[in-house]
Amino acid sequence: MYRLSRLRFIFPIGLLICFFLDGSLSKIFAPLFFADPYSMVSCLTLLWLVLAYFFEGDVAIPLTGFAIVVGAVADVYYAGIWGLFIFLYPLMVWLTRVLAHSFNPSFLTSILIFFIDVAVFEFLNYVAYNLVGVTSTNLVDFVVDVLAPSLALNLVYFVLLYWPISVIYKRALAKQQ
């Protein structure tokens, strides 16, 4: 059904826009996002993947495939460590699916699942960077200085973008029928 849907164009374009907005917003707002000692990590790409799961309806978007591709591109473009995001993005898609089956779909459960996804995503990112020696921050400093501000930023993104993205999906799915 995905092949025949307008989402076959809208989803990848939105994913690409979110991917580049992650880096662009981090660059533009660097003095705000990375004010010592705090760091806020923008996760718009993850937001797009999570909301796609909730809004895809009967159209089965191949989220795992897209997550692998965007993860590989993120590894090459942003991280410099091959293989981190290529596993984290599909893992977050899987986690979203598992968590979503435990709750009735609503705005509050969506925001809860996204909150958990961002927390797990950032924690696994921290663990991986700590293992390879990119960072030597202790866990408490990570939670206070990186995780909490990142969760706050991404929850603001979620609240601001939830309804506009839902409208985009509803219109794309309505024109399909």
TrEMBL record:
InterPro entries per the UniProt record, alphabetical: Cell_shape_determining_MreD (IPR007227)
Chief subcellular site?
A: membrane
Q: Give the GO terms filed under biological process for this record.
A: regulation of cell shape
What is the recorded membrane topology of this protein? Multi-pass membrane protein
Stretches that traverse the bilayer:
6-25, 76-95, 107-127, 147-169
Look up the record and report any one GO term of the cellular component aspect.
Answer: plasma membrane
Q: Where in the cell is it found?
A: Cell membrane
Keywords assigned by UniProt?
Answer: Cell membrane, Cell shape, Membrane, Transmembrane, Transmembrane helix
- What family is it from? Belongs to the MreD family.
Q: Which NCBIfam families match?
A: shape_MreD
Recorded protein name is: Rod shape-determining protein MreD
Q: Which organism is it from?
A: Limosilactobacillus ingluviei
